[in-house]
Structure prediction request, 188 residues.
Amino acid sequence: MAILTALFDACVLHPAPLRDLLMRLSMTELFRARWSDAIHEEWIRSVLRQRPELAVQLQRTRQLMDAHVMDSLVTGYERLIDTIELPDADDRHVLAAAIAGGADVLVTMNLRDFPADRLAPFGVEAQHPDVFIRNLLRQHEAAMIGAVALHRAALRNPPKSVEEYLETLLIQDLPETVALLRQHQEKI
Prediction:
């Protein structure tokens, strides 16, 4: 069975709690996580608009992401950009990276910007992160619960109870994921 490849859009990498969870899940090697330098630049620029004092930390986060998630950085997609039509031309680089990176799934909160009829010819499906994580939980329950437990345990500043952790995930718009995780609270 082929391993699922997921390209993360900048909007799912912007919020630190969601980005951290996705990175922890990426290290399970249950799927292949991908992104591009342009996606990095987009999410970092977005965070810096609100928190300019984080510039050094965000560059370190970028380096750690690239170093710890194997084969994550997609290159050579630029030639595809002009051949793609999407509702927002500024999103073409994301789909181009998904195509060049062999992504099955484009994980984004902006589903309307990636209509199914525009992605289908490339074998790519846009999924909200809640659907993406929920599907992984259903397919690989034990490994995913273990990764979630490690993620929560790594939160030390401040540490979070299981309930506080699940509330944080709800704020990230992950209600289906949280509903499944509530069934395993004693393990996380």
